[in-house]
Design brief:
Helix content: 40-55%
Shape: globular
Strand order of the largest sheet: 2-1-3-4-5-7-6
Low-confidence stretches: 1-11, 17-31, 42-51, 183-190, 192-197
Structural class: alpha/beta
Length: about 260
């Protein structure tokens, strides 16, 4: 009888310990509604990030970092954004970055000659060219590229905030966009600062991203005889643009636009 009582007591102790352990485990794994909501939001953010991740592609968009965009900090900031969203050429991603002048310091050739050679001799399947702060003679390289393609370049060329010759870029780019300049800033001062000081604005990464997205939607060159202001407004979305007016002739440009100053 004594053995039976002892057995019963041991069985009761084991069952009590098991129930306690299960209760503790339930307390640890159960979450409040607020915690469950936070987890759901985290999962949504993760899903959005996954959607934005790039995929391997044969297409390339050449992005030239020119004046105002060629300092180390700006390049790192923008290439990090591009790498995450589109991928870089070195990883079979979309973006083929070039930096002025660092990418053109070989063979003793000029920038325009080297830039033209890269674009015309490369086996890369270009989907477009986006030029940030176009340095001088950029239009010469693009003019040679037009000749190479017999005036039918199969992808868009877009210059944002250029420092190169205005008329030259208007004749060689599909779209040119610049910021409204304050009257008290002289051209000489702009030229000096453009070479040494970053001009990137807080909204530039979004604007550049919108431009790259727009190039991808084209899937080829911009149709001829298009209303380019409509294209620019679609490209820059919430930004307000007006047609550039030549200060000497008073004529409005067809493909050159100015971002409205705030």
């Amino acid at each position: 009888m004594k053995r039976i009582i002892i057995s019963i007591l041991l069985l009761t102790a084991i069952l009590s310990f098991s129930a306690c352990k299960k209760s503790n485990k339930t307390k640890k794994t159960s979450k409040t509604p607020a915690a469950q909501t936070a987890d759901s939001q985290t999962q949504s953010v993760q899903l959005e990030n996954m959607i934005n991740l790039w995929h391997v592609t044969n297409k390339r968009i050449c992005v030239l970092f020119g004046y105002g965009y060629n300092d180390e900090e700006t390049i790192e900031q923008l290439t990090q954004m591009m790498d995450q969203r589109y991928g870089l050429d070195e990883d079979d991603g979309l973006i083929f970055p070039l930096t002025y002048p660092d990418s053109f310091k070989h063979n003793g050739r000029s920038f325009s000659s080297e830039f033209y050679s890269i674009l015309s001799e490369s086996e890369k399947d270009f989907a477009g060219i986006v030029i940030l702060g176009a340095p001088e003679t950029t239009h010469i390289a693009l003019s040679r590229l037009q000749d190479f393609w017999e005036m039918n370049i199969p992808y868009p060329i877009i210059a944002l905030f250029p420092q190169d010759n205005v008329l030259g870029l208007e004749s060689t780019c599909d779209i040119v966009v610049e910021r409204a300049q304050k009257k008290e800033v002289t051209e000489i001062k702009e030229e000096i600062e453009a070479e040494t000081i970053s001009t990137i604005n807080p909204e530039d990464p979004e604007l550049i991203r919108n431009t790259l997205d727009y190039v991808l939607t084209l899937n080829g060159s911009i149709p001829k005889n298009s209303d380019l202001q409509i294209h620019v407004q679609q490209m820059l979305k919430n930004d307000t643009v007006t047609k550039y007016t030549d200060p000497d002739t008073g004529l409005k440009s067809v493909n050159h636009f100015v971002l409205a100053s705030e």
